[in-house]
Design a protein that fits this description.
Layout: H1 8-12, H2 15-31, E1 39-44, H3 54-61, E2 66-71, H4 81-99
Parallel strand pairs: 1-2
Length: 100
């Protein structure tokens, strides 16, 4: 997926969204160490917005049980059909194990 080429005015409207995103990233980095419940992380290797390096942040910060599902063909806004099935099944299993 990609973003269509637009006028400069269109891009300037995104500035606030980027600012909001970086503020949220700062909060997450500060607060992630306080997560004390089981966590499921779904990570896509072809993500257009989230770096593969972000997994290091999780691995070094959680003091709880966490599971990572790595998707090779999917991106931030789309899922490969087979990987979507895998993700939904993994999510179901995760919930069953967490709620039981």
């Amino acid at each position: 997926m990609s973003v269509d080429i637009s006028s400069l005015a269109t891009y300037t409207r995104w500035i606030q969204r980027y600012k909001d995103s970086f503020e949220l990233i700062t909060i997450v980095k500060r607060e992630i160490k306080n997560i004390a419940i089981p966590t499921l992380i779904i990570h896509t290797k072809k993500d257009e917005f989230v770096s593969n390096k972000s997994l290091n942040l999780f691995g070094n910060s959680f003091k709880n049980d966490y599971k990572v599902i790595n998707l090779e063909k999917s991106g931030h806004f789309y899922y490969d059909e087979e990987e979507l099935k895998k993700t939904l099944k993994s999510f179901e299993i995760f919930l069953e194990g967490t709620i039981s």
